[in-house]
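Methods — Computational structure assignment.
A single polypeptide chain was analysed. Its primary sequence is given first, followed by the predicted tertiary structure written as structure tokens.
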Amino acid sequence: MERRGAWPARSAWIREAVDALPRDLFAPDRLWRWNGKTYAPVDRETDAGQWAAEVYGDPDAAAVTQVTDGRASSSLSCQAVVVDMLESLHLETGQRVLELGTGTGWNAALLARRAGPGQVTSVEVDPELAAGARQSLQSAGAHVAVTVGDGTAGWPPSAPYDRVISTYAVDRIPWAWVAQMRPGGRIVTPWGRLGHVALTVADDGQSATGWVQGLAQFMPTRGTDTGLDDFSQVCGDGPAADEHPWERELAPLRDDWHLRFALRVALPDVRITVAADEDGLNARLHDGTASWAALSALPDGKTLAHQGGPRRLADELEEAWDTWLEGGRPELYDYGLTVEPERQYAWAQDAATGPRWPL
């Protein structure tokens, strides 16, 4: 973190808090490591070295702490993003904080060290995780109120709050978060599983708006219906309804995070994966229900687009990509969100006059 200048100079308290409350104090004795096929347990007692590597090996990697039905369902979030989001929160001593998604309790402990004893309320949907977090927080001397509940509803008994922070990704900002804030309060949350935003509540409390702050890939809200997960489930065995040459290079679709964020805004329900084989780069797109597209590299160096279902996702991808290029290739930091009681939308470059996309 120090070598790459990742500690925020304007918020020196964050590094001091991380030093005082190291991650291993909040890591359970069993972690889970992806071995390429499945999540395998890594136990502190039998493999302390690998366990420590999961906790401290990479500031950009999360340590998986819970697996449900073969999928990671909770983690000790990667340190670099935790630090980035804490800086975005602009937290001051004495402010009341609501955290959604207690997890291991580490983030709540960092918040409490800055805000002060009794100033942080954290909501966790999983009773088992909440109990473990309470124990870890108590052992670390962090005074945080951990309650079991649905973070979507916030936590009215302790409102109003000066700050709200979520440790899981949402596609829409729950209005309850805004309603339980003081005017001028700040909300920081991962949005769309690709970036995190910081929103400021208006003086009249009837809206919140703000900019994307950086990349953040977090788990979604528990119980999120993601439809069909696998491309093959959507594609099925039937033939493509359309086939045509694809002339555009696919490398930016894999490597350009600004393009990927723009496509996430424009095509919020379309999932895009890019991978290489011996012929070159290939892309797979699906909407989780019935539409799909495959951009397949051929041995002669060309790429062929196949698509099927009610929508033509390859065409939608190309149109959204062109719109981004014509708009001057805005970076992810040029985007923001506005949240109102009856509507929400993303925007680019200017909240009032820039292009908008309803959420």
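Note: The radius of gyration is 22 Å.
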